[in-house]
Amino acid sequence: MDDSDADHSAEAKTSDSEPIRVFGWSDMFVHRDDDPRSGGNFVDERSILVEFLRNQRLTLELKCAGLDAEQLARRSVPPSTMSLLGLIRHMAEVERGWFRRTMAGQDAPQIYCSKDDPDGDFDGALADPSVVDEARRAWRAEVEFSERFVVEASDLGVQGRQRKGNVIVLRELLVHMIEEYARHNGHADLLRERIDGRVGQ
Q: pLDDT value at position 163?
C-alpha cells in the first residue's frame, strides 16, 4: 500500500454496535516517519537485545494510547478477563518479578497479585481513571528499574536466581522478556481492534 492509498480511511470508525476494521496510516497509531521504535542497524548483542525489548515496550504503550479508562478496562470475550489495562498491570508484575526479585535479589512484594488472588493484575483492572494512572506509574517505574539494571550490568552473563533456585543469566532473561511482550502485544492487537478498529503496527 503506498502513501496515497494509506491516507484513505473508512468514513466511519464504528457502526451502531461494532467497530469497523480499517487500515491506512491515518488509522494506525503513528505514521511510519513518526514511529518512536528503533529501525535496526544494531552493532552488538547487547544493543540488539536492549533495543528489541525497548521496541516491544513501546508497542504496548502505543496500543494503549488515546483510550479512556472504560476502553482500557474493556475485556475481550468471556470467560477471559484480559484487557489492555490488565496487560499494563501484568507487565508491571513481570518486570518487577524478573528484574527486582530474580536479578537484583530485592525483597519486592507483588503489586497486584497474591496467593488469594493470583490473577489480581487482570481481576483488578477496573474502569477507573485512578486505577489507570496508578497502573501506568507502576509499569513505568518497573521499566525504569529494569532498564537501569541492564545498563549497569557488567555483561550479559550476570546471573539471577529464581524462587526454586534455578539460575538465569541476563542474556536469557532479555530474550524471554522480548518473547513475553511480543506474545501480549499480539493480544493487545486484538483488544485494540475490538475497541475502535485500529489495527496493529
A: 84
Go through 42-70 and write b for each residue having 16 or more CB atoms within 10 A of its CB, e for each that does not. eeeebeebbbbbbbbbbbbbbbbeebebe
Q: Is the pLDDT of residue 93 over 90?
A: yes
Nearest to 92 by CA among 147, 136, 150: 136
Closest Cα to residue 1, out of 20, 23, 21?
23
Given a contact cutoff of 8 angstroms between Cβ atoms, the answer to whether 51 and 41 are in contact is no
> DSSP secondary structure string, the chain?
--HHHHT---S-SB-SSSBPP--SGGGSSS-GGG--S--S---SHHHHHHHHHHHHHHHHHHHHTT--HHHHH---STT----HHHHHHHHHHHHIIIIIIIIT------SS--SS-TTHHHHT--S-HHHHHHHHHHHHHHHHHHHHHHHH-SSTT-EEE-TTS-EEEHHHHHHHHHHHHHHHHHHHHHHHHHHH-PPP-
Do 183 and 7 touch, CB atoms closer than 8 A? no
Condensed to tens digits (0 to 9), the pLDDT of residues 7-33 reads 334 333 555 567 766 555 555 566 566
| Residue 150 CB coordination number (10 Å) | 20
Q: How far is the first Cα of the chain from the last one, in angstroms, to the nearest whole number?
A: 14
Cell numbers at 76, concatenated: 475481550
